[in-house]
Amino acid sequence: MKSLFVILISFCTYSLAAQSGFQVVDDSTGAGIPLVNIWIKNSNTGTTSDASGRFGIMIKEKDTLILSALGYQSLEIAADELDQTISLKESLTQLEDVIIEKPKGTEIKSYGAIKSRKSSLYISCGLKPWKIGMIIPKDSAYHNTPFLSKLKLVTSSDIKDAKFEIQLYAGNDSLKQFPLHDDRIYGHAKKGRKITEVDLDSLNIRFPDTGLMIVYEFLIIDENKHTYTYTDSDGKKRKDGISYEPKIAVRDRQFRNSSLSRYSGGKWLSLENNFNKGNDYELAIELVMTN
Questions:
Q1: Residue 50 domain-assigned (yes or no)
Q2: For 223, how many CA atoms within 13 A lie in the half-sphere containing its CB?
Q3: Are 40 and 157 in contact (CB under 8 A)?
Q4: Is residue 60 scored above 80 in pLDDT?
Q5: Strands ordered across the beta sheet of 85-88
Q6: What pTM did the predictor assign?
Q7: Domain membership flag for residue 76
Q8: Where does the UniProt annotation place the signal sequence (predicted)?
Q9: CA–CA distances in Å: residue 100 to residues 65, 168, 203, 205
């Protein structure tokens, strides 16, 4: 179990140099787009735009940037074509399973119950704007309570009120995602190890017949920054470190045939090879559903 924690954290120890001056804007309105996920293609370097769409990143002449945000078309742009202002167009993808009826809310059931807020295994992004995707196949047990009411997650944070984003998609393949909502969903984790709830009632989303993909996105923004000191490998010198909170817990699989993947460098990658038990782990998430 301890080796898993080390493997996950080992992705996060690289330093990130920044170059400021870019802004991501809506192609139609010119308004800045907040919290855009930004990567240098096929690399381990990325960041997140701030509340006004501005960001900084160190890029080389031959690099390509990949930008993505819910509700917008993803964009790949070569470094030599970059302007200080980068425009994203609204997504043309139709929402999956548009719901007209509202849940009755007379029956509530939980699946993948979280029994404790304590966990020894957490995924930490360090300095990277990772997205962690968890696919949950459809189960007949959801028939009487088909609407998503809330998510419960086990988080750990070294700062107060750390912010993260949740995205929900239909489908059983991380490469073929169909969004289930237009509005962006944010969660806030309190300091310490907590069970953090994200309310979904207002979205009126049914569990998709093709399966549900829950995406947890780390946000590389100032309000999530945690600075700390640590001792180097020789045990002689103290150094300063930076990470971005919060971390999310991993547990043994409870949802049948669930799977994990990670979005990094502009593409989705299976996490199967990062676990010493194969792909028998999942995010510590509880689904609360209603009728």
A1: yes
A2: 13
A3: no
A4: yes
A5: 54-55, 22-26, 85-88
A6: 0.89
A7: yes
A8: 1-17
A9: 38, 18, 11, 10
Q: Is residue 103 in some structural domain?
A: no
Domain extent, residue 199, equals: 108-290
Mean pLDDT, residues 100-127: 88
Question: What sign for the dihedral angle of Cα 102, 108, 109, 113?
Answer: positive
Residue 284 clears pLDDT 50, i.e. is over it: yes
3-state secondary structure of 202: helix
pLDDT score recorded for residue 276: 55
Q: Which CATH number belongs to the domain containing residue 28 in this structure? A: 2.60.40.1120
* Same domain, yes or no: 261 and 136: yes
pLDDT surpasses 90 at 271: no
Strands 85-88, 22-26: pairing kind: parallel
What DSSP designation does 36 have? -
How many structural domains are present in the chain?
A: 2
User: Which tokens belong to 216?
Assistant: 């947890």
First-to-last C-alpha distance (Å) of the chain = 38
Least confident of 69-83, 101-115, 213-227: 101-115
* pLDDT at 92 > cutoff 80: no
Q: Cis omega before residue 246 (within 30°)? A: yes
Residue type, 77: I
Q: Please, which residues have CB within 8 angstroms of residue 155's CB and are 6 or more apart in sequence? A: 162, 164, 189, 193, 194, 195, 196, 246, 247, 248, 249
CA 181 to chain centre: 15
